[in-house]
Design a protein that fits this description.
- The relative contact order is 0.14.
- It contains 4 helices and 14 strands.
- It has 337 residues and is of the alpha/beta class.
- It folds into 2 domains: 6-156, Spo0b-associated Gtp-binding Protein, Chain: A (Distorted Sandwich), CATH 2.70.210; 162-334, P-loop containing nucleotide triphosphate hydrolases (Rossmann fold).
- 13% of the residues lie in helices and 25% in strands.
- Strand 12, helix 2 and strand 13 (279-285) form a beta-alpha-beta unit.
- A 6-stranded mixed sheet has the order 10-11-9-12-13-14, sandwiched between helices.
Amino acid sequence: MKFLDEVIIYIKAGKGGDGCISFYRAKFIPKGGPDGGNGGNGGNIYFISNNNINNLNNFHYKNNYISENGFRGQSYQRTGKNGKDFIIKVPIGTKIIDVKKNLVLINLKKNKQIFLIAKGGEGGLGNINFKSSINRTPFKRTKGSLGQKKKIKLEFILKADISVLGLPNSGKSTFIKKISSANTKIGNYYFTTTKPILGVIKNKLHNSFISILDVPSIIKKSSVGKGFGLNFIKHFKYCNLLLHFIDLSFIKNKYYIYNAIDIIKFEMIKYNKKILLKEQWLIFSKIDLLSTKDDLIFDINKILIKYKFIKKIYLISSKKNIGINTLYVDILKYFKK
């Protein structure tokens, strides 16, 4: 199934129950007064964040949510039962938007955070409420009011400490699988990763965890919809470190490297130039497959001078375990700051 991080849903809170028209009757009281009870309130609809959910895929199967109506009032001044509330579970980091008003209502950032999105209608009044000195037998009641209904857009952003990016087959998925818990797909064809995948790295330096995000590869003109587009880049919002992977296995000359960096840089700028303000490290992968090692065909210092947004450069091979530990330790040290 496609990874869903944006959905439109329709919600409707329950209608309030109608009030009741009734008069008290007993064996020796044939003409008792009014005793019609009020209707129950309609059920509300709530959103609640849940840290066990990491996508909006459940909304692929259902996009209409209705809570229970309130029950009508009854004789003997009995109030109708309230309708049951409906609770919709969403992942942490879900933004709730009122489509009609184009208004962000809330961003659920904490686990088990509850938000009332639609209030149920109020129950109607029974005829007991309309008794007066001049009207002792009121044949009047009110109907329950309608519950709120809304068209809602849900936007979900994965919260990761590290995000990786690169051209197809750049080695990022292999690296992430090696150092984290992410179950990423690996293969020798374009777009192995077809949806964002979140992994976790155990930070041994201070007994904590670091989250790392693998996203679909970027290609030239991704910003205009080529490949998987760039919509998934919004998941970089909360990350502190970007790892940019470049495959060295079929490098012909230094211009390939500059071109690979420029493609990613251009596409990032087209999406949001602020992304380049994040800490970014350049990772040359598959170093074991480099056809020639004459000065490694490129000058690392020149790259750092030309691309100011790149802070560090690493040479690794996930398959041969070259340079992995150095990069891993530096990541741990970076998040110990």
